[in-house]
Amino acid sequence: MPLQLAVTQPDGSVREHLLYEGRAYSVGRADEADITIPHPQVSRLHASLQASNDAMWSLTDTSSNGCFSSGSAVSKLIIAQPSSVMFGPVTCQLTPVLPTDVLRADSQQVWREQQLKMHSKQLQQCTSSQALLLLAQECMQQFLGCERAAAMLVSDPGMGTISASYPQWLRQDGFTGSRSFIRQCLATQAVMAVGDLTEEAGLANQQSIIRYNIKAALAVPLMLNDTAIGVLYADSITSRCYFTDTDIALVCRLASLLACRILLLTIDHKINAITHTVASAQKEAFDTNPI
Predict the structure, then answer these.
(1) Which of 42, 132, 150, 202 shows the smallest number of beta carbons within 10 Å?
(2) Please, what is the Cα angle at 258 between 214 and 134, to 5 degrees?
(3) pTM above 0.70, yes or no
(4) pLDDT in single tens digits along all 291 residues of the chain
(5) Measured between alpha carbons, how far is 132 from 194 in angstroms, rounded to an integer?
(6) d(Cα 194, Cα 185) in Å, to the nearest integer?
């Protein structure tokens, strides 16, 4: 039975590795490790994972900083069910998966790629910013397993007014997402992905996160001419929701497509405005000095 190893990344995302029976896998900081965790408190070769008799997986600690499960140090751990293990300070999830589940995950990834291509074509057909935002929101809801998703344009870098779509939680007077999270994304112009906000230093005590019980959040900046003009935002208010690097890569691609389309719409609007101004001037000149 294959084993999925999900490693929490410094940016808050989760990187998934799929291990198969028949060989041992090393986990550690060293480049030669099969699964590399670039953290200074992770040993060069921190642990070994291997399936016994091609069935039951086991973990063996080979580190100086220890492996921990359920708060206790473990030198050897049998992985018969989903288990959370810490390699030093880095949290990882180990999950035995059926071969049919592996095939299902591969099929889901193919489907998501197809959906992105389809939405890319639809984005090209949108003739207004509002239509673009609504389509991007629909696309994110299909990609991600979180409860709420939206595309937002902001009127200023200080996150003053949100120009977004119609659900009540997105409206200016009733916005229940995390402004602090979005402001930080806009300020850094970088992807933010946090699967458990209650454990995130600097965010766990933010009033919006406490007041609206936001458990997980993802924000990807919309960049136009080196300026953040908005975000693709998603969150979860009932449970933690870990975002994989594949999730983030897909949303980043969607953000690039959306920003390009907004740029083209802006250019179209400017050309139309110039054309209208020139036509008006020509008409006024003709009316003033008819031939």
Answers:
(1) 202
(2) 60
(3) no
(4) 788 888 877 766 778 888 888 888 899 989 899 989 888 899 999 999 988 766 688 899 999 888 998 888 989 988 888 888 889 888 888 888 776 666 666 656 666 677 677 767 777 777 777 777 777 887 787 777 677 888 888 764 444 444 444 455 666 556 667 788 888 888 888 888 887 776 676 777 777 777 777 888 888 998 888 888 888 888 887 766 677 777 888 888 888 888 887 776 665 555 555 555 655 655 565 556 655
(5) 26
(6) 12
Between the alpha carbon of residue 47 and those of residues 13, 44, 61, 202, the distances in Å are 22, 9, 5, 31
Domain positions in the chain are: 3-97, 102-261
Question: DSSP assignment of 119-157, as one string?
Answer: HHHHHHH--SHHHHHHHHHHHHHHH--SSEEEEEEESST
Q: Which CATH architecture has domain 3-97?
A: Sandwich (2.60)
Query: For the domain with range 102-261, which CATH number is right: 3.30.450.40, 1.10.10.10, 3.40.50.11810, 2.60.40.650?
Result: 3.30.450.40
d(CA 82, CA 149): 28
Residues 6+ apart with CB under 8 A from 271: none
